[in-house]
Amino acid sequence: MVPCCFLVAVLAPLVVALEQSPDMVIKEGQSVNLECSQKKSSNTAMYWFMRPSEKNSSLTLLVTAIVGGNAEVEKGFESHFKSSDIKGDSITLTIERAFLNDSGTYYCAESEHSGWAIQQSPDTVLRVGDTVTLECSGSGKVIWSMSWYRVPMEKDAGMQLVVYSVEGSKADIEEEFKNRFQSDGTKNNHLSVRIQHVLLNDTGTYFCAEQDPQ
Question: What pLDDT digit, counting tens, does each position of 2-56 carry?
Fold first, then answer.
């Protein structure tokens, strides 16, 4: 028998300046609106991500919205995912006629395109077997934690968390990367990741992110 209900978990947002809908359980076939609003008004872009409920699933980008422009839903999700444009300081994600495989954790995030708060290493071309260190520096303001993410080159690949570190603490490297990825953690608004003996499947786009104190 197919379950009639599933969990849409909406947990702590990626950026603590945001507020979003609480956890909820809905039935298959129902529609739901997920709301996201910010406490300040300096951002120029907002995003929705989803991490499916399956074990070891990766973070997937659903929606990108720029202030003054139309929100864009990623390919593969247009059939029953809709998004409002940014209105004031808010954005709404609508799941129409939800399916069981829509179960997961939904995250809202923001960015300030007027001047990036963090700087990271430029694009790099490597040979298999090389070693590379990815550098990320914060803006100089107080930062609570920093993270590195990777989006593999494969079509429709989701965003993967590589390393997460609270300022002054040991880095937490995700299990699948522990073999060849190393990091000393966040120190003075700086987080680096060293990839030893690069393999072809390490190819991808690497993103650095920061989180401010609450």
Answer: 333 333 333 333 333 567 777 778 888 889 999 988 755 555 678 888 878 776 6
Query: Over 70: is that where the pLDDT of 163 sits?
Result: yes
Determine which helix (DSSP H) or strand (DSSP E) holds 207, and give its type and residue range. Answer: strand 204-211
Residue with tokens 């120190």: 187
Domain boundary among 111, 143, 164: 111
Decide: helix, strand or coil at residue 212: coil
Q: How many residues does the chain have?
A: 214
Specify whether 69 is located in the same domain as 149.
no
Nearest Cα neighbor of 164 from 132, 193, 141 is: 193
Q: What are phi and psi of 8, to 5 degrees?
A: -105, 100
Say which residues have a Cβ less than 8 Å from residue 25's Cβ, sequence separation at least 6: 5, 6, 7, 8
Determine the structural domain holding residue 168 and report its residue range: 119-211
Structure tokens at 62: 């659903």
In whole angstroms, give the CA distance from residue 38 to residue 15.
9
Residue 209 has pLDDT above 70, yes or no: yes
Kindly state whether residues 84 and 124 are assigned to the same domain: no
**Per the structure, how many domains does the chain have?**
2
Q: Give CA–CA dist 107/69, Å, rounded.
A: 21
Distances (CA, A) of 45 to 38, 60, 108: 11, 17, 11
Beta strand extents in 131-170 (DSSP E only)? 132-137, 145-152, 160-166
CB contact set of 127 (below 8 Å; sequence gap of 6+) = 198
Q: What 8-state DSSP symbol labels residue 87?
A: B
